[in-house]
Amino acid sequence: MRPRWRWSGGPRPQTVLIPPLVTQAQAGKTVRVVGRGLNRCVSCGSGRPLALLETPDGRSLAYSEGQESGRLIADPKQAAVLHRRYATLRAQALTPHDSVGLLERIRGEL
To answer: Is residue 3 part of a domain?
Structure first.
């Protein structure tokens, strides 16, 4: 049976990166691993680093970082789109406990 997951970057992520991720996650530290379906080349969160902000008066802002520059997104409609996209990613994410379990299962299959 083929695994339902695949690492990009060759064997290094599988053998070198998983054990520290498991250790950090078990210690209660934030570990972010982005997964996507095997038939997808790009996910909605893979474009560039993004910071979502909300001001004390309730305005939504976003800061998008590129290779040579960053961009503050203050337009309410554009910022709302990014906030909704991030909310979708969070809703689909595994719980911290389930994330550790997944990493441990993958490590055990290596």
So the answer is: no
- Count Cβ atoms below 10 Å from residue 95 Cβ, excluding itself: 8
Does 42 map to a domain?
yes
Handedness of CA 22, 96, 30, 79 (dihedral sign): positive
- Domain assignment of residue 103, yes or no: yes
Query: Number of structural domains, the chain?
Result: 1
Q: Counting Cβ atoms within 10 Å, is residue 53 exposed (0-12), middle (13-18) or buried (19+)?
A: middle
CA–CA separation, 68 and 76 (whole Å): 25
Q: Note down the domain range covering 78.
A: 12-109
Q: What is the pLDDT of residues 46-96, one digit of tens each?
A: 556 788 888 999 899 999 887 788 889 999 999 999 888 888 877 877 787
Contact 17, 103 (CB under 8 A): no
